[in-house]
Amino acid sequence: MAKFTLDDADDDPPVATARDKRKRDDGPADAEDEPPRARGSAVAGREPAAPGAEAEAAGRRGPAEEMANGEVEGGLSVQIDPDVLDCSICFESLRPPLYQCQNGHVACFSCWSKLSNKCHICSRDAKFARNIALEKIVESIKSSCSYAKWGCCKFINYAQRDAHEEACLFAPSVCPISNCGYRGFTGRWSGHFLTSHSSDVMRFIYGQPFEVNIEVSVPFLVFLGEDDHLFLLQNNNLTPFGHAFSVVCLRSGNLNWMFSYQIEATSRKKPENRLQLKASVTNTRQWTGIYPSEAFLLVPFDFCHSSNIVLNISIERYAVV
Q1: Residue limits of CATH 2.60.210.10 in the chain
Q2: Is residue 13 reached through a cis peptide bond, with omega within 30 degrees of 0 on the bond before it?
Q3: Where is the SIAH-type domain (predicted)?
Q4: What does the pLDDT look like over 118-159, one tens digit per residue?
């Protein structure tokens, strides 16, 4: 049995498109605040072993790190350049069926179907045939996620690595402030907002109500919890009805905590009239302008009669059992 280690240990965490990742371009300019990228590993024909007692003693390392640092008993340990597992035309991960010309130049099925029987390297007519041996190699390789050192312990088929990393819970989140572009992790937001957006964030304590005054034209406000979790109070203008308010948590990593929130709006003309919502906080990695549709507080335009809306908000935190 052979253990393959993908030789990309010194790259930044992938934050671009799948094609950019496969080209191994340099990371974004703001990547200096991110942790170094985990060493990816790929194992041929073997599922990852469960972490043992040594992993517990080393700070609960996941199986991805155990496989990356250990040897396969009775097998052969080798390194492989991950670029050789990518199509030389589209730079996407090779996926069976795979075809090659008579000189051994390989293309993925999607690109092969567009070549019109002319090799992209030989630049002449070619007779393409299936490369069954390479298909078996590609299918046997299982790769650790690039975010293994931040908690992702999944081993996935190398051909599915791009799709997994784009949706991986442990990938960095994107700063919601317009034109910022910073990508970070829970535990690093305090430093980023302190240095870059100190006037754009409001700190709060879980379980203690606080008051916010939001302009009706502002799409969201940023709240920072005492444990560095980042929340957005979203303001969705639902013309002609009113403003829909909801709270989401911008987070990545282990979901060891869950959150709920309560929003209350009071009429300025008749303080006895109040609107209230209590709901669970929705989790997201990036604010894309899409608002939750299941739970929100709808404040009619006529309720406040002002360009500002005053809300009382409380956010609760509880551990996942």
Answers
A1: 173-319
A2: no
A3: 140-198
A4: 787 887 777 778 888 888 888 888 878 888 877 788 888 877
Tell whether the torsion through CA atoms of 212, 213, 216 and 217 is positive or negative: negative
What is the DSSP secondary structure assignment for residue 125, as one 8-state letter?
A: B
Cβ atoms of 41 and 64 closer than 8 Å: yes
- Which two three-digit tokens encode residue 63? 């199986």
Amino acid, single-letter form, for residue 272? E
**Pair type for strands 242-250 and 297-300:** antiparallel
* Among 69, 38, 19, CA closest to 170: 38
For the ranges 26-35, 280-289, 300-309, which has the lowest average pLDDT?
26-35
Please give the radius of gyration of the chain, using alpha carbons only, rounded to the nearest integer.
Answer: 25
196, burial (CB in 10 Å: exposed 0-12, middle 13-18, buried 19+): middle
Type of residue numbered 98: L
For residues 231 and 225, the answer to whether their CB atoms sit within 8 Å is: yes
Dihedral sign from CA coordinates of 161, 18, 93, 148: negative
pTM over 0.90: no
Tokens of 78: 């080798």
Domain 2-167 has CATH 3.40.640.10: no
Q: Which residues pair with 260 in a beta bridge?
A: 280, 316
CATH assignment of 173-319, given 1.10.10.10, 3.40.50.1220, 2.60.120.200, 2.60.210.10? 2.60.210.10
Span(s) in the chain for CATH 3.30.40.10: 2-167
Picking from 141, 112, 146, 143, the residue whose alpha carbon sits closest to that of residue 128 is 112
